[in-house]
Design goal:
Distance between the termini: 40 Å
Radius of gyration: 22 Å
Helix content: 25-40%
CATH architecture of the domain at 85-161: 2-Layer Sandwich
Number of helices: 12
Strand content: 25-35%
Shape: globular
Largest sheet: 5 strands, mixed
CATH class of the domain at 85-161: Alpha Beta
Length: about 400
Amino acid sequence: MKRTKIAAIDAGTTKVCTIMADTNGTGDVRILGVGMATSEGLEKGVVINTEKATASISKSLRKAQKMAGYSLRSAYVGVSGTDMSSLNNKGVVSIPHNNEVVHRSDQKRALEIGRSVEIPKEQKLLHVIPRSYKLDGKGNIKDPVGMYGFRLDVETHIVTTPATLVQNLAKCIISLGISIDGMVLTSLASAEAVLTEDERQNGVMLVDIGGATTDVAIFKEGNIHNTFNLPIGGHHITNDIAIGLQIPFEIAEKMKQEYGDVNPFEEKDSSNITTTEDGHSVSQYDLYEIIEARIEELFRLIIFNMQEANYAKVIPSGLVLTGGSSNLQGIAELGGKVTKLPVRVGIPLNLDASNVDLCDPACATSIGLLYWKIRQTGSKGWDIRKKGLEILLPKWLGYFNSKKLAYVK
């Protein structure tokens, strides 16, 4: 069976990850090339220095291409940032056909109305995702095409992003000769990699803890329920350690990665002292207290931003954590203690044993972008969870690849 090449680029605050792969059309993903590079020129998901950001992406690309043995032409790209916005909307259309059967064109008309909201000039439409359909006011319908009815209703979830965010990121990638297949909210991409179908159906929250932001996506009855983000990430934990223990940021980051732990301290030896390479000595107890305080604050902010008093009924499957900071020991236990819900750390699913290095929550977005591409293609035999989840990629995305806009020159 012919295999199709696919690729993903996740340019975050901490790292840039490029993955090149192929698929046989049945959901089997074969990883061909992986490139990791330290991220420079990006902050809170936003390009703040085009030259440095482009150099970081280029370094990641070169590593992946060298490993894969061919040149990358196009990729799906992850998008994040504190200025992302989302809202829910509705669309209603009549079914004009004599046989009263819903056609694909009727579904598209409903979605067009469902996306008709006033968007500020500085924002651009990123996603329009149908949450559910109704026919003649009845049913939580996943796909209405082929069904009978007089009136079709759709509930949509709309995600917008600052225009400059996607323009500047696109400029960096296109300048390297890479076309953009699509831009995807990182939390939605990560969800593709780590959530099970049962969790999506029952109700679950995906929490992607990045370097400078935490992106959240809530799923219910198989579809997206809500999305939001918080301006807190792994760098804030590191900064707290650096200030609290009066050590350089770089040393604080290394200590967090090597010794970071939020398990109950009573289970540890309170006299344990960790010594850094340059002679700094700190108490493990102090390190634990600082990390625990920030992580606990993050979980409380997440629940607060749900704005639902009965949140346990919305997400009975609890929280699934991804992102590099979810590797902190004891983070799932602390999350369960704060939220009173099941909490687990999510690693990319459906990877074979040869890709053990990618079985890490820090790689969830990159792997999820590949799965997103497969679902968009709609390969036969692959469980793409098409239950009403259709993405309307904005028309303006095509302009990025045309290189005709002034900011690309």
